[in-house]
Each structure stands twice: as structure tokens, then as C-alpha cells.
Amino acid sequence: MSLTNADPLEAAKAARLGSRKLAILPTEDRNAALTAIHAALAEAKDEILAANARDLASATKAAESGVLSQSLVKRLDLGKKGKYEDMLQGILDVRRLPDPIGRIGVRTLLDDGLVLERKSSPIGVLLIIFEARPEVIANIASLAIKSGNAAILKGGKESTESFIAISNVISKALQSTAVPNGCLQLVVTRDAVGSLLSADRYIDLVIPRGGNELVRMVKQNTQIPVLGHADGLCSIYLHADCQIPMAVRVIVDSKTSYPAACNSLETLLVDEDALKTVLPAVAEALLSQGVSLRCDYTSKKALSSTLDKHQAVFLQDASDEDYKTEFLNLILAIKTIPKTETPEKAVDLAIDHINEFSSHHTDAILTSSKSIADRFLEAVDSASVYWNTSTRMADGQRYGFGTEVGISTNKIHSRGPVGLEGLTIYRWIIIGEGQVSMDYGSGAKKWKHQRLPVGDEEAIAQDEEELRMLKEFRAKRMASS
Amino acid sequence: MSLTNADPLEAAKAARLGSRKLAILPTEDRNAALTAIHAALAEAKDEILAANARDLASATKAAESGVLSQSLVKRLDLGKKGKYEDMLQGILDVRRLPDPIGRIGVRTLLDDGLVLERKSSPIGVLLIIFEARPEVIANIASLAIKSGNAAILKGGKESTESFIAISNVISKALQSTAVPNGCLQLVVTRDAVGSLLSADRYIDLVIPRGGNELVRMVKQNTQIPVLGHADGLCSIYLHADCQIPMAVRVIVDSKTSYPAACNSLETLLVDEDALKTVLPAVAEALLSQGVSLRCDYTSKKALSSTLDKHQAVFLQDASDEDYKTEFLNLILAIKTIPKTETPEKAVDLAIDHINEFSSHHTDAILTSSKSIADRFLEAVDSASVYWNTSTRMADGQRYGFGTEVGISTNKIHSRGPVGLEGLTIYRWIIIGEGQVSMDYGSGAKKWKHQRLPVGDEEAIAQDEEELRMLKEFRAKRMASS
Hints:
seven-stranded parallel sheet; alpha/beta; 2 domains; Ald_DH_C (chains A, B); Aldehyde Dehydrogenase, Chain A, domain 1
């Protein structure tokens, strides 16, 4: 690992070379590297937080003069309660997970003595470009090493102090491990992004972590595949039959628990029948937490007549633009779903709005009806779709991945929170005895195409009893064939 | 399905709308559409081959005057023995395969009453751009419909007649099925590629099927993810201990069975110790099939002293460029791997050459030593890596996928031959009871993250017999509990 001011192309080349060695390191060596990183970061907490405080001070100043957004400042803060501990815990969680590399996914008997296998492998070299969120360095480092990938990290100038502090600690920690030098490249050179994005010879995947301007810039300037999301415009559809306490809890959490996060709620769709029954309690709770409510005509009218006067004065009018906006702040757009002949038609209107305006990141429905929920879960085309829980659940740690390299709204490879599995690909391996293609086909030999066990009984059996049965069944059949 | 001369953006929009309906069609409806396509194409064979013959005649003329490459002409020919039948069989094979959509891949208990599921879904809208190979239309149509994806097909001008003939047949066949109009768009408008490549709002994935110029053009002109390969520079490493008959069979098949194919052999790496033992028989067989051998100094010298004089005169000198060239023709570059202290070091030289010069498509080793083979299989970073079989095995039909949309050298999503699974993605679904993110984390509730059975017997059973057994076992246990 090196913190480099050198030519970014050299960094990329070094990462490529290192990646070949890292890819064949045994599991224990990769886990030992995570242990070393965790210990060093725990040890250096005060020093790193001091560096982060300096970044935070400059950023706050820049935000006051309007140069930087408030939401970026919030994402920068590593001192926020529990954040540093979560970062450390993420490293241990990743270490505990099974090795994602070298797994056989498919095994097929093509013909006698001709076996095809699909075996998981690291992707190669990752380029991660991030703006704020200094904890990303630790997340990426642990996920990359565990999955056998080399990583080049390029931080934004807002987090430079934190970046250098964390980098130095990780760098020193890795020196005593088997991870080859060069596998983690921390680039602080200014203006390095352009040449890194053109290094498709050395880099296999780019993961931008930042606002949508960064993501768009990256997509427009590279032929390397890009994993991530530009926007996080998440919606909740509040069905009229939802219990009030659940609606209040879930919507307040979705909107207020971390407004600068990509999985926070931005648009609330409300059944017309819920405007005077469920919505008032929700609006009251949101207003009391300082959330600005931007309402369409119908919902504003209903709320104005039900809320206390001193609260109702704060209601605002929504513009069309508000339903296309990721506020990343304490603002919520509210839209009424009009009454229809059947409840199904109302769900379809909500689904259509979401498929048209949401960013296909995370969308939820609140209802007590299973059939209504199923319709929604089936038709909403987003990376994560929820019934009766907060949009804030969209997160690698919460999904059980330990931590994440990011959240993807791509329709290929990895979708939603991306952990270890999203950083792997596979190779197809065939072991034969000299068979050739001309042996098969019209009028010649037939393919067998028989699925073979991959030794996965443990993974697929529901319990011990079924496992025993399955193993016996397969053994008996192998013996008789 | 429509064969359109209209605005390509309208075609893309129609495909997007159709895709939403196709995505929720039941399996039987999608299979019935394949039955209809198969019957119609079988019925119309003469008519389609007549159209193909017209394309072939123009292309042959163009090739004679040097405007078109010979390899393109070869790929265009649908009348080649067995090709039409293979195309028809591919449709039936795809129909027979289990439905790739709606499968639960992961089910995790996040907490009591809070369950996360990963469910497979169609990607959405595919854009397939191809030059020759008219059978691609039938392959793509069947794979797309079976996997619930809409597809826009744009053919090259060389295959226009075949394209229109096949399109009309498929179009008529689909009218009697449940597949929504618009789900298959066959674009014959000239110059439509540019606007289709910019339609990232409607199109989720581009699959170029053609020469590397087409692939590079596509990559440079779109922000939509691209699946495929530019080059197919495949290599074989011939280790000194390989039995002569196997070496001859595998190398001749790899080079000569279809030289215009991307999985054909282009570079042969030969152990120095094999130059006068195994290589002469291989060279003799290749020369007698009209293959030009471009040899490095050492291998040419060895062959000159062992081959018959009237054969040796045909040996050519290799230039550096030859080891970077995908000939797609009866030409083979031969390079010597020099003797080293240990056999492992020689393998490493071969691995280094392949990782540097091959196109990471398909590479093979011929050896009788398991440890040598394992070293090679582990370290070669290509989509397909073989031991003792022909590089021509890299093919969706041969892998058991029925047919393929193409072969990918991408390091994300799908690698190698791409069939149904490569045309799917997934959504993450959470079903809760009102739990919110603030309930969990430092000092609050702990996540359970417990793997639950996916109850997906179809996905896990190796074959019909095991599926029956597994379902019976589970049903019996459910009844008794």
C-alpha cells in the first residue's frame, strides 16, 4: 500500500501487478490483513478524528459562504456518534464472512470425462473516487482485500486531512502483512481523475462515491464499467389502511434519521383516503422535527384543516420540480394519489409515479394488505423494494454484508448495497481428456449437460435432517450410476 | 414485435413500455411464444435460406473486391451444414430450461418479523447490434423472451435480406402469443445506431455482436453498459509431456473447425522440449489443412529440421505483431517457451504471455500433469480456461445454456458465454412490521442476519428425479409437523 503523489498511471499499473499476487493469497493471509487494519485504526482514533475535525472546520466555513453543500459537510463528519465504531465493526464483520473467492457456483458434466466449472474470482483492480465520507477508505480497504481485489482510492479535497491520516495508518499496518505492496493505492495527486479514468488497460471497475455531479462526470469520461448510483430519490407510498403508529415511525425514520444519506425519503405518496386519517399524525411528527413539507393542493388543503394553526402555517406548496428533487435535507415532497374505483388502481398510480420519478434506488409501501403490498413489490423496478419498513434499511451493513463499497442502481452485475459478492466475478474452467468440438453436433455425439453436485448440500439444505437425506440420496445415486 | 422503419427512439420507448408487461408474464406464456417462433422458423426454412443466399452473394462479391472480410462472409452463411438446425434446436433448448425469473437467491432474517429476499428479475431492455450471423436474431429472441427482457435488434447491412425474412416470420408468429407488441423491435432504419446508443433512458444493456471495430465504436459512443468482447485472441500452451495424438486433435480442432469464430486458436505456445517431439506431428496436420504457421526463430529452426522438405518450405517467420493479432483465418502464430530450471517457471512464462497478450477470452493448456494444469487454471485471468480440450468449447450451447446472446470478456456481470442467467438481475425485497433504522446500531438492537432456506427446489435440484424426491420429502415433513 502506498500513499502516492506520483503519476496516477504508475499507480494503476502497480495496482494491476499487485492484484495478480493478491488474487492467489490464501484466506488466512487476507483475514490477517483485516485484523492488522482494524487494530491500527482503533489505536489511532484520536489522531484520525483530529485530522477529520480540521477537514470539518474548513468545510463548515466553505458551506457558510455557500461554496459547499450542507449535506456534504454532514457526510464528512467522522466524529458523529457511533460512526467511528461502526467503521471499525465493519472491518471485523467483513473478516468474519466466508471467503467469496474460489467458490464453485456451477458444475456440469458436459460429457464423460469433460467437466465444466464456474469458479468465483476477484474482479481485478477497482478505482474508487469519493468526495466526503472518510470512513469509505476503511470500508473499501477491507472489502477489497477480503475479495482479493486491488484498489485505487482517490479522495476529494474536502476530506484530504482525514484521508491522509487514515491512509498512513492503514499503510503502516499492512507492511507487516502478506498483502503485496501496490494493492492499495491512495492517490492524492490533484487532477489525477482524468488519467485514471482513461486507464482501462489496468482498471476493471470504477465506483464513484459522491453526489450526482461526480457520478455523471465519471460516466461521461470513461469506458471502464461504472458501479454506483447518481441519485437517491426514494419514495414511500402510504396506503389508507396503514396503522398510524407504524406510518409515523417509518416515515419519520426514513426522512430524519440521516437526511444527507442517499436512502433517505424524498417523496411521500399518500392515498386520498389517508389525508385526514393517517397523514395528520405523520405531518405533525415531521414538522416538530423541523421538516419542511411541500404539499400538492389536495394534501395541503386537508392538512390545513386538521393540523394546529401554528403548525399549518409552515406547510408549503410543492412544484413539479419537487417530485424530481433529491433534497438531501429536511424537506419532503407530498403528493396525493387520488381515489380510484378499486384499491388496485390506486397502487398502480403510485407504482407508475415511482417507476417514472424515483431513481430506482429504494422505495417502500406502508399497508396492512398483503395483496396490495405484493402488487407493489412485484411491479416497482427499483434496486430495493420494501413493505412496512424504512427506506434507510438500504445499506450493506444492515443487509448483513459487514459493510459496503456503495449502493448500485445499475441493472447489471450488482444491484442495491454492494458487499463482497459484488466485488467478484468468475472464470469458466473445463477439464477434459482431449475432446474437441468436432466430436459433437448434428449427427455426432450428444452433450450430456448433467448438473453435478458442487458440494453445496450444506448451503441448500433447510436443516440437519434434510442435509442427511440429501447426502444419502446423492451418494446412492452416484454409486448406482 | 415490429419491424420498424420509424424513429429509433420511438422503438426504444415502445420496448421499454412493453418490457414492463413482459416482465410479469407467466412462464407458460413466455414458453408458448418460443414454441410459436420455433414452428414458424422451421416452416419458413426455404424462404429464409433463399434470402440468406442473396445476402451471401452480395457479400461474396464485396469480399472479392476487398471491401468485406472473408471471415465476415463465413459468419453470414446460414446455409452451412447443420447451422439452421442448430438455430432451431437452440430455441427448444432454451424453452426446456427452468425459468430464470422470480427465483429467490438469498433469504435472510434481519430481525424477528423482518425478512430480506433477493429475487431475480429481467434486466429490462436490451439493444443488440450485429453485423453478420443472422442466426443471432433467433437466439436473442428466444433468450430475451424467456428471460422477460424486451430487445431491440439492429442488423448490419450485409445481412439485411436474411434479417428482414427472419424478422417477418418471427413477427407473424408472435402475433398469436401473449408477448406484448413492442417487446421485440427490429430496426432497419439506416444510421439508427447513434440515437439508440444515446437512449440510456430506455435501454439497459447493449450487446454488440461483431468485429472489434463495431465493439469499440459502441463502447466509445454510449453510457449504457456494454456486454461482449472486442477480440478473441485465444492461446494454447503445449506442455512437453502432452501425448501426441491429443495435441494434434485439440490444436487442429481449435484452429481449423471454424477459423472465423472468436473462440478459434490464434497463438500456440510450445515448450522448447516439445519442439522436436510433439510439435512436428501438430505442424504436419495443420499444414496439410492449409494453415500458415508463423514461427519464432527457435520453433522454425526445429520444425525445419524435422518436417518433410516440401512441407518445411511453407513455414513463415513470425513478427511481434503476429502475437497480438486475431487472424480469424487459417494462420497460426507459434512461440517457444524456453527451457527453465523448473517446469513451474516455464508455466509461469506461458501464463505471463497469455495474461499480457491474450484477449482474456479462452485459453487452454495441454499437459498430462495435474499440478502443472492447476497452476495454469488458477493464474490465467480469462473468461474460460481449459485443460486438455479445444478452445472452441467456449460456446453457450456447448456449456448447456441452449444458446447464447454472445460471449463476454467483461469483468462484471456475466463472463464467458452468456445465456439466460446473464440476462437477469435482481431486486432486494424487505418485508417488515414497521421496524426502522434507528432501532438498530450502537447501543440499540442487534441484527440477526440469519440465512433462511429459500424453498426453491427447482433451483437447487440437480435434475428431475432429485426434484421429485425433494418436493415429496418436504411435503411429507410439512404435513407431519
